[in-house]
Amino acid sequence: MFNVLSDLNWFAVIASTAVFAVLGGLYFTVVVAKPYAIALGNDDRELPPPGPLVVVGPLITSLVVVVTSAVLLRALHVEAIGDGIAFGLIVGIGYLVAQTMTIAINPNFPRPFLYTLVNAPYFIVCTVATAVILTAWS
Q1: Which one, of 17, 16, 37, lies nearest residue 28 by Cα?
Q2: What is each CA distance from 77 to 6, 9, 70, 73, 108, in whole angstroms?
Q3: Residue 123 and residue 90: Cα distance in Å, rounded?
Q4: Which of 44, 105, 108, 123, CA to CA, is 20 to 30 A from 99?
Q5: What is the SS3 assignment for 110?
Q6: CB pairs under 8 A, 24+ apart, for 66-70?
Q7: What is the rounded CA–CA span in Å between residue 31 and residue 122?
Q8: pTM for the whole thing?
């Protein structure tokens, strides 16, 4: 059932990963830069310039999320766009947003609810977009 890696549309995987990267770059540096800094407690201090890990790390982890979604969509035989959207919402809210909240509930995150609220739209939009791309190109 899960032996589907060779059946994946790798162009769709690359396109979906690019969506994660482009939306993430725009979302966190333009759309929610200030609330994101506040959520992390960094609104009153100068941060060092981002290194390569800030670009490469999210790109790799986004690729992992996209490949995982592609495998599950294929294994579950999701073919209709509506079912793809439902899958994206389930993954986005049920896994990524919930896990973001779990990670943020610790003493290192001064505002865990704000952090989750700021991150949630990005994860939901990206997972739905990914599911639609992967479903449409399957």
Answers
A1: 37
A2: 15, 14, 10, 6, 41
A3: 11
A4: 44
A5: coil
A6: 66/13, 66/16, 66/17, 66/20, 66/130, 66/134, 67/8, 67/13, 69/16, 69/127, 69/130, 69/131, 69/134, 70/8, 70/9, 70/12, 70/13, 70/16, 70/134
A7: 10
A8: 0.92
Tokens of 97: 């947003």
Tokens encoding 36: 């994101």
Residue in 40, 36, 35 with CA at minimum distance from that of residue 110: 40
Encoding tokens for residue 1? 């059932």
Going residue by residue through the chain (138 aa), what tens digit of pLDDT does each one get?
Answer: 668 888 899 999 999 999 999 999 999 999 999 999 999 999 888 878 888 998 899 999 999 999 999 999 999 999 999 999 999 999 999 999 999 999 999 999 999 999 999 999 999 999 999 999 999 998
DSSP summary character for residue 137: T
